[in-house]
Design brief:
The complex is a heterodimer of chains A (394) and B (293). With 394 residues, chain A is of the alpha/beta class. Chain A is built from 14 helices and 12 strands. Mean pLDDT of chain A is 90; it is low at 14-21. Chain B contains 11 helices and 4 strands; from the N terminus they run H-H-H-H-E-E-E-H-H-H-H-E-H-H-H. Classes of the chains: A alpha/beta (394), B mainly alpha (293).
């Protein structure tokens, strides 16, 4: 006869056995015996497609590689895309569709910051493991939502890195030119905090509209302030206008960009004035330029799967992020649940990917997992070079 | 003094572009009595067409200019046929909303056609990119091209309205559409011509501006807002007023940015407009009397 204690243990064992049966697994949305449905959202159309569609293409080649090797514990990864058009309402709609209609198991996505930030509540409410691949808004990961992690640099990390880089380059008179829309403010505020933390006051603090077609006034004011470095919190369009006018007026400081201007080649073309971008430096989330032999494998895979595409830094955002998600799915074991994947993401430490400049580290309290911006430069007409890596908050 | 020269020069260049947008708004308003909210999108769409012709197809710049103006004209005529003529007898609000609808359609179409090419499209410079000195002021030759182009367009359209039969018929229709109909003017054709002409001016502005800026599907609205402000400042019915308004808006924002702070650039022209409209509600160069009812 079983004692009450032994009976209790047996009952617990039976319950545990039932809990991990295929029937129980079937209750995990998006999970079957042979597939894991992963949802992705971002701009598939419109100017934000760089941070959406191209990044998703990077995710997909990683998934293809995993699937070709047998999947994760025998399950193939299936990617379902939703277009948020960089629009807040569309992003919320995309999340609702992926979670409730497509019933995906996990999410990897987020291109435009404002759209992703708007969707944060919907993602958090769904309690679905989510990895952000490109959106940089601090509010997406701070304060941390239990289920949302990011492999994108966040705006506060980038702002700190911009100032740190200028100081490393021995700039003594550092100025700021910024957009003050929602995107700009998300970077401007932490940038000013970084100045304060370093005991520095910018020698000039100018504003430029996202739609500006002339920056003569701003250039003249920065020149009058004798700035030797200008931290640019600008989209490529106003940044190109600023650089052109700076060249016109003979103002040649160190121009320090951020991931809003992530492609120095495209930026050089947009500026369109030979030599004007010679002193322009910008942040990259990834370590390698698209033509670096280190990413040959990924170039082949991307260009084979998406004829007409050239491997870009945006593809690499997706590649790195997908490798982190795959790792978390593996760590969740053969009977994964959403909770196990969230725990696995929170437990990732010093994980090396094929593309990021430094290892990825998440924690229970800090879901900003990427803190190693790389600095890019492009000599006029020459190739893009990776100058340095600036670890922040490590 | 040097600072002032630089700021005035850049303000005049930017203002010339606002003036062109304002001209298109005024041309349509004079003939039809409505504000065409799609004027900025005509500008944007024609700019993309010009980019396609010049950059993708290798068409030379003068021919690109001409073809873009033709496409713009066609776009304007089409707008008249699908969004104005069928509802011409309804109230003004419906007519204005129809142009808003056209604006959204054109923006969406541009996203579909050109949205996947890059985030911002650059148009190669048509002049040397090396600055040149005029007196003590350094200017980019493209700025001079914009100014020259604007002057040429203003002269051409002034001559058109003053000297041609079509131009005079447009003036007559604007003054009194019913009377114009009674004397045999086909006012429906005049409306088509007005929309076409307004859009062609926007296209010309886009081709002139493209090398100075970058093209993206949302570029039209920002230009429309400034152009509309310039048109209001000039009096909404006056072609010289539109030009003057554009130049004032451009110069005021440049001077405010240089002498006060760059954060007041965007708002400064609107402050000036408010002051002008309080003192002179019909605008600077409109001499219509306000009737109290």
């Amino acid at each position: 006869m079983l004692t009450p204690r032994i009976s209790g243990l047996v009952a617990t064992a039976v319950l545990a056995a039932v809990a991990i049966t295929p029937a129980a697994l079937a209750q995990q949305p998006g999970l079957t015996a042979d597939t894991i449905k992963i949802g992705t959202f971002g701009a598939l159309t419109g100017p934000g497609y760089l941070y959406g569609k191209l990044v998703m293409n990077g995710v997909e080649v990683v998934f293809d590689e995993i699937n070709a090797a047998g999947g994760i514990n025998g399950r193939k990864l299936q990617l379902i895309r939703e277009d948020d058009r960089c629009d807040a309402a569309a992003a919320i709609g995309a999340i609702q569709k992926l979670v409730h209609q497509d019933q995906v198991f996990a999410l990897i996505g987020g291109g435009c910051s404002n759209a992703t930030f708007a969707a944060r509540d919907a993602i958090e409410a769904a309690k679905i493991p989510t990895l952000i691949f490109a959106s940089v808004h601090d509010g997406i990961t701070t304060p941390p939502a239990a289920n949302i992690f990011s492999t994108a640099l966040t705006s506060s990390i980038e702002s700190q890195a911009q100032l740190a880089f200028a100081m490393q380059q021995n700039a003594k008179r550092i100025a700021v030119i910024s957009m003050r829309d929602a995107w700009g403010r998300a970077r401007y505020a932490p940038l000013m905090a970084a100045f304060k933390a370093n005991g520095i006051t910018p020698v000039a603090d100018e504003e430029l509209s996202p739609d500006a077609n002339d920056a003569t006034a701003q250039v003249l004011r920065l020149k009058a302030a004798n700035a030797d470095a200008v931290l640019m919190v600008l989209y490529p369009k106003p940044a190109a206008v600023f650089i052109r006018d700076a060249q016109k007026l003979g103002f040649k400081p160190l121009n320090v960009g951020q991931t809003g201007i992530a492609d120095p080649s495209a930026f050089e073309e947009q500026v369109g004035v030979p030599g004007a971008t010679a002193s322009f430096r910008t942040i990259s989330m990834v370590k390698y330029t698209p033509d670096d032999p280190a990413v040959d494998k990924w170039r082949r895979l991307v260009e084979a799967k998406f004829p007409g595409d050239r491997l870009s830094v945006f593809n690499q955002f997706g590649i790195g992020s997908a490798q982190v998600l795959v790792e978390a799915l593996k760590r969740a074991g053969p009977e994964p649940t959403r909770e196990k994947v969230i725990d696995a993401l929170a437990g990732i430490r010093d994980f090396k990917t094929d593309v990021y400049p430094g290892p990825i580290t998440c924690s229970e309290t800090d879901h900003r997992c990427h803190k190693t911006p790389a600095w890019l430069a492009k000599d006029p007409g020459g190739p893009i070079r990776v100058l340095a890596v600036t670890p922040v908050e490590r | 003094m040097l600072l002032l020269s630089y700021l005035v020069m850049s303000g005049v260049t930017t203002g010339a572009l606002y003036a062109l947008i304002a001209l298109g708004i005024v041309v349509v308003n004079k003939a039809t009595g409505i504000i065409n909210f799609a004027q900025g999108e005509f500008f944007m769409f024609s700019g993309f067409v010009a980019w396609m012709l010049h950059v993708q197809m290798g068409v030379n710049y003068p021919l690109t200019f001409l073809l873009a103006a033709v496409v713009g004209f066609g776009l304007g005529c089409l707008t008249d046929r699908i969004a104005f003529r069928p509802i011409a007898k309804t109230d003004v609000v419906s007519l204005v909303l129809a142009t808003v609808g056209i604006a959204f359609m054109l923006k969406g179409l541009a996203r579909v056609i050109w949205g996947g090419k890059a985030d911002y499209l650059s148009f190669p410079p048509i002049t040397s990119t090396d600055p040149m000195m005029i007196g003590n002021v350094m200017v980019i030759p493209q700025q001079l091209a914009v100014l020259a182009g604007t002057v040429a367009i203003v002269v051409i359209f002034t001559a058109f309205f003053r000297l041609t039969r079509a131009g005079k018929m447009m003036q007559a229709t604007a003054d009194n559409a019913r009377a114009a109909t009674l004397v045999g003017i086909r006012t429906d054709r005049i409306y088509t011509l007005a929309f076409g002409t307004g859009a062609a001016i926007a296209a010309a502005a886009a081709v002139l501006t493209a090398p100075l800026t970058l093209l993206y599907p949302d570029i039209g609205f920002a230009f429309f807002v400034k152009g509309f402000a310039a048109a209001v400042l000039g009096g909404l019915m006056s072609l010289p007023g539109a030009v003057l308004g554009g130049l004032i808006v451009g110069v005021v924002e440049s001077l405010a940015g240089g002498y006060i702070h760059s954060s007041v650039m965007e708002v400064s022209p609107f402050v000036v407009i408010m002051i002008v409209l309080v003192l002179r509600p019909t605008g600077l160069l409109s001499f219509n009397k306000i009737r109290r009812v």
